[in-house]
C-alpha cells in the first residue's frame, strides 16, 4: 500500500539511519557515571530540595548503594541526595529517580528513565545489533524491579510506583536465554518472572469471575506527570481538556457511567476517574477511545492485549521450567495457558466482525471498537487458522500507506487514527508471519520502514510516532488529548526498525528505500 509518487533513498541514506540507531544506544544510555543526567525530569516540577533525589528500596543497603554510586561518579554523587523510599507510596512528598543497578536505555525526549514495555522493543534492537550484554543488563534491571519494587515499573520514577506496563518480561528473558544459553541466569530469573506474573493475576487486577485480568492502579490521585508534560499551548493540562469535553459533550459518553467519574455540579473529576486514568497509563495506550472516551472505562474491561501477553507468559514460563527439567511445573503452566486461551476466544472473539475485542465484564459484552490489538491473539498463537483468516480479511481497516493505524476512529487521542506506533507494527507483523501471511507482513513492514526512512532523510531524527495515513512525522494537529509532542530518539522505534528490517527477506530489503 505504497503511494505512487515515491522517490528512492540512496543506500548511503539507509546506512545513515542504521548508524543513527547504533549511535542512539550510547546517546540514550544512562548509567551510574551519569547519575545527574539520569535524574533530569521534564515531566514534574523539581523538588524543593536543592539536590536531585534518588530513592532506593527499603530492602537495599543505603551505604552499599552510596559507595557504588560515589565510586562511579564522585562529583555527581555530591550533587544528589540518596534516600530510602518511605514504607508507603502516599508518604512520598518529593518525587525522584528510582535506583537501578545496571545500565539502561531511555526512550528519548522527555522520557529520561527506563520504561517497562519500551525496554522490550529496545532490547530487541540491542540483540539485533550484537549488544547482548547490554540487553542482559536491561532484563536484570527489570528483574531487580520485581524483587525490590514489586513489579516491572511503568518507569523508574517514584510517581510510577503504583503501576506497571504491558508485560513482556518473560519474552525478553527467553530471547536473551536463547542467545546466551546461560542456565544459571535463567534459573535465577524464573522465580522473579513468576512473581511478576502473580502481580497481574491476583488482587485488583484479576477479575475472578472471568479468570482474566485487567489494567489497574493502586492510587486514585491525579498523575503528577500530567501537569508538567501534558499541557497545550494555552497551558491547560490534559485533565482541564477532559473536563471541558465532559462539560460540553458528556451526554455523548455511553460506554461508562459518567457521573462516577465526573461531578458535573462541582466541575470536578472524581477519585475513580483518576484511578481509571492511571490504569489507562498502565495499558501504555494513553490515551485513545478504545476503553471509552479517554480510555476511562478501562476498569470495566478485560483487554485482549493484556490477556494475550499473560498467555504468552504462561507458555514462556512453561518453557523455562521444561528447560530446567521441571516437568510437572511445565505441565501445570501449559494447562493454565490453555484455560486462558479458551477464555480469550470465548469472550473476546467476535464472529460477526471477525475481530477480537476487549470484553466488558460488567455488561457482559464485547466493546466493538476496531483496534490494532486484534492482532495480539495471532502474535500469541491463540487464534485458530479460521479466526486468523477472518482477522486478515479486515486488514484494510488498519493498513495505510505508512503501516498500520492504531484504530479506525479519529478521536483526537494519540493512540487512535491516523497515528501508528512502532510496537504495534511489530506485534502485528509477527502475528501475520506465525499464521503464514508473509506477503502481508512484508508489505506492512516495508510501508512502515520506508516511512521512517523518508522522515529520517527529511529531518535527521527518528521519532516516537507517525501519521501513517500521510506518511509523515507531523502529528500534533491530530492530537487534542494527552500530549501532542513527538519525542525524538526514539528507543522503541529504533528497536522495531532493526527487528522489522531483519525480518524481511533479503530480496525485499531494497524496497525500504522507496520513500
List keywords for this structure.
single chain; globular; about 525 residues; mainly alpha; three-stranded antiparallel β-sheet; three-stranded parallel β-sheet
Could you characterize the architecture of this molecule?
With 515 residues, this protein is mostly helical. It is built from 18 helices and 18 strands. The strands form 8 sheets. It has a 3-stranded parallel beta sheet. It has a 3-stranded antiparallel beta sheet with strand order 10-13-14. Strands 1-5 form a two-stranded antiparallel ribbon. The chain starts with 10 loop residues before the first helix and ends in a 12-residue tail after the last helix.
Average of per-residue pLDDT values: 97
* Helix coverage percent: 40-55%
| Beta-strand proportion | 5-15%
Number of helices, where a helix is a run of at least 4 consecutive DSSP H or I residues? 18
Low-confidence stretches: none
Overall, the morphology is globular
The total beta strand count reads 18
- Helix/strand structural class: mainly alpha
Strand order of the largest sheet: 3-2-4
Short description:
By secondary structure, the chain is mainly α. It is built from 18 helices and 18 strands.
Topology, element by element:
Elements: H1 11-27, E1 29-30, H2 35-39, E2 53-56, H3 62-72, H4 74-79, E3 81-84, E4 97-98, E5 104-105, H5 118-128, H6 132-149, H7 169-180, H8 183-200, E6 206-207, E7 212-213, H9 225-229, H10 238-249, E8 262-263, E9 268-269, H11 271-282, E10 301-302, H12 304-323, H13 327-348, E11 349-350, E12 355-356, E13 359-360, E14 365-366, H14 376-380, H15 385-393, E15 399-400, E16 403-404, E17 419-421, H16 422-434, H17 438-459, E18 465-467, H18 491-503
Parallel strand pairs: 2-3, 2-4
Antiparallel strand pairs: 1-5, 6-7, 8-9, 10-13, 11-12, 13-14, 15-16, 17-18
Helix pairs in contact: 1-18, 5-6, 5-7, 5-18, 6-7, 6-8, 7-8, 7-12, 8-12, 12-13, 16-17, 16-18, 17-18
Amino acid at each position: 500500500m505504497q503511494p505512487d509518487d515515491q522517490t528512492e533513498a540512496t543506500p548511503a541514506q539507509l546506512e545513515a539511519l542504521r548508524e543513527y540507531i547504533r549511535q542512539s544506544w550510547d546517546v540514550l544510555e544512562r548509567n551510574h557515571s551519569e547519575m545527574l543526567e539520569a535524574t533530569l525530569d521534564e515531566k514534574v516540577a523539581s523538588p524543593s530540595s536543592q539536590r536531585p533525589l534518588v530513592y532506593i528500596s527499603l530492602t537495599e543497603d543505603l551505604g552499599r548503594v552510596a559507595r557504588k554510586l560515589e565510586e562511579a561518579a564522585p562529583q555527581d554523587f555530591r550533587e544528589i541526595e540518596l534516600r530510602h523510599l518511605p514504607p508507603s507510596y502516599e508518604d512520598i512528598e518529593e518525587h525522584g529517580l528510582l535506583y537501578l543497578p545496571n545500565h539502561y536505555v531511555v526512550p528519548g525526549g522527555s522520557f529520561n528513565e527506563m520504561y517497562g514495555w519500551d525496554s522490550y522493543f529496545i532490547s530487541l534492537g540491542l540483540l539485533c545489533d550484537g549488544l547482548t550484554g547490554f540487553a542482559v543488563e536491561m532484563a536484570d534491571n527489570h528483574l531487580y524491579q520485581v524483587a525490590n519494587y514489586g513489579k516491572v515499573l511503568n518507569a523508574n520514577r517514584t510517581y510510577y510506583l503504583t503501576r506497571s506496563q504491558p508485560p513482556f518480561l518473560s519474552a525478553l528473558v527467553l530471547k536473551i536465554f536463547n542467545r546466551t544459553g546461560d542456565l544459571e541466569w535463567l534459573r535465577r530469573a524464573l522465580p522473579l518472572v513468576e512473581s511478576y506474573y502473580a502481580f497481574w493475576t491476583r488482587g485488583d487486577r484479576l477479575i475472578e469471575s472471568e479468570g482474566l485480568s485487567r489494567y489497574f492502579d493502586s492510587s486514585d490521585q491525579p498523575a503528577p506527570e500530567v501537569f508538567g508534560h501534558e499541557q497545550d499551548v494555552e497551558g491547560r493540562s490534559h485533565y482541564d481538556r477532559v473536563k471541558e469535553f465532559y462539560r460540553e459533550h458528556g451526554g455523548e459518553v455511553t460506554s461508562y457511567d459518567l457521573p462516577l467519574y465526573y461531578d458535573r455540579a462541582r466541575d470536578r473529576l472524581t477519585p475513580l476517574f483518576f484511578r481509571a486514568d492511571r490504569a489507562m497509563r498502565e495499558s501504555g495506550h494513553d490515551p485513545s477511545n478504545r476503553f471509552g472516551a479517554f480510555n476511562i472505562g478501562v476498569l470495566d474491561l478485560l483487554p485482549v492485549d493484556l490477556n494475550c501477553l499473560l498467555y504468552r507468559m504462561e507458555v514462556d514460563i512453561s518453557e523455562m521450567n521444561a528447560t530446567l527439567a521441571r516437568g510437572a511445573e511445565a505441565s501445570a503452566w501449559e494447562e493454565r495457558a490453555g484455560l486462558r486461551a479458551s477464555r480469550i476466544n470465548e469472550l473476546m472473539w467476535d464472529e460477526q466482525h471477525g475481530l477480537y475485542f476487549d470484553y466488558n465484564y460488567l455488561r457482559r459484552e464485547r466493546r466493538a471498537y476496531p483496534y490494532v490489538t486484534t492482532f495480539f491473539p495471532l502474535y500469541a498463537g491463540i487464534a485458530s487458522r479460521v479466526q486468523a483468516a477472518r482477522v486478515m480479511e479486515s486488514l484494510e481497516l488498519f493498513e495505510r500507506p505508512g503501516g498500520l493505524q492504531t484504530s479506525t476512529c479519529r478521536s483526537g487521542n494519540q493512540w487512535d487514527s491516523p497515528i501508528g506506533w512502532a510496537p504495534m507494527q511489530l506485534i502485528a507483523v509477527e502475528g501475520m508471519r506465525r499464521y503464514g501471511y508473509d506477503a502481508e507482513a512484508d508489505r506492512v513492514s516495508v510501508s512502515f520502514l520506508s516511512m521512517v526512512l523518508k522522515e529520517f532523510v527529511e529531518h535527521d531524527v527518528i521519532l516516537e510516532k507517525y501519521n501513517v495515513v500521510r506518511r509523515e512525522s507531523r502529528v500534533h494537529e491530530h492530537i487534542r488529548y494527552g500530549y501532542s509532542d513527538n519525542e525524538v530518539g526514539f528507543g522503541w522505534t529504533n528497536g522495531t526498525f532493526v527487528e522489522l528490517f531483519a525480518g524481511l527477506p533479503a530480496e525485499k530489503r531494497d524496497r525500504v528505500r522507496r520513500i
